Amino acid sequence: xxxxxxxxxxxxxxxxxxxxxxxxxxxxxxxxxxxxxxxxxxxxxxxxxxxxxxxxxxxxxxxxxxxxxxxxxxxxxxxxxxxxxxxxxxxxxxxxxxxxxxxxxxxxxxxxxxxxxxxxxxxxxxxxxxxxxxxxxxxxxxxxxxxxxxxxxxxxxxxxxxxxxxxxxxxxxxxxxxxxxxxxxxxxxxxxxxxxxxxxxxxxxxxxxxxxxxxxxxxxxxxxxxxxxxxxxxxxxxxxxxxxxxxxxxxxxxxxxxxxxxxxxxxxxxxxxxxxxxxxxxxxxxxxxxxxxxxxxxxxxxxxxxxxxxxxxxxxxxxxxxxxxxxxxxxxxxxxxxxxxxxxxxxxxxxxxxxxxxxxxxxxxxxxxxxxxxxxxxxxxxxxxxxxx
Length: 389
Prior knowledge:
A hairpin with a 7-residue loop joins strand 17 (361-362) and strand 18. This protein is an alpha+beta fold. It has two domains: 2-183 and 310-388, Aminopeptidase (3-Layer(aba) Sandwich); 185-307, 2-Layer Sandwich (Alpha-Beta Plaits). It has nine helices and 18 strands. Helix 1 (2-12) packs across helix 3. The protein has helices spanning 2-12, 23-35, 111-128, 150-153, 210-223, 268-287, 317-328, 344-349, 373-388, and strands spanning 43-45, 61-65, 74-79, 91-94, 99-102, 137-142, 167-171, 178-183, 185-194, 228-232, 235-246, 256-265, 298-307, 310-311, 334-338, 354-357, 361-362, 370-372.
């Protein structure tokens, strides 16, 4: 089992598939699933890319595997996209350290989340050997997780069957003993700053710099404890500027600047307070940045992808099932909360209780990324145990 799982993993990792460009990954998965015996009629795609802010060349892939056992349908999910820095990676199996590493300098590996795709292929291979001696199973391969869970948000739940699956096991994350039962909520938002262009040499005093406005606001937020890790009497969370785009040249006072930022908190009211505090800071910065003609900057705000926090009770049926399966393979587990966000947020919002299993990723989204094959193998075993107990 583990040999074919590693082969699938090594084949999946180099396939380019940043958000909104997952079709080559979907094509590989589709071909492999059909080759191992999944009827082509049981593989479908929704149109989640049509509701995406980013467009896209394929939707979420839904795979139904019929079972002869009576009982509710089980859903397993993962995502196909990787962060853009993974394009061009060169995975290598490091047997001495029992890991997969990356030989391409300056790129991330893409274990997040090609490891999850490989594990679901492993599950499908195993189910094909059981001649239907398992409950009904649905596999979902999501698009555009890395840009705000956009694929999971747009999932066509009608393609999952009626009634909906009773529970879902989502695959994404690090140490295999950790089972995520609660996940933070996040809201991304845009900030559009408008200044006044002017020649940066002969007429610099006539300009209103969008860069100065942003700098003032961010500095105020950092000084006040509203940037990065936030701990206040009324709540806790995080905030971050992820993208800043603007400017025409070094000889022009920057006339406009686009910012993509985010706020996270398990408390939606406190998350709203973070965003309100940011908006106030940027408005003050814009109003206080004035040129010699008494003109000031302006700022507008727009919404971005949002998902709500959730928390399952420790005795939820999906949690109990995972614990039973882990005991069966002698895997100690612990229930944890996650501040990163995952497709599970939207799966729960769609009405399907969901936990996320960690599957061996390490140092994700960095040039030091690697995959722990001990954890990867145990995750394969755990997923199969969940599907067949």
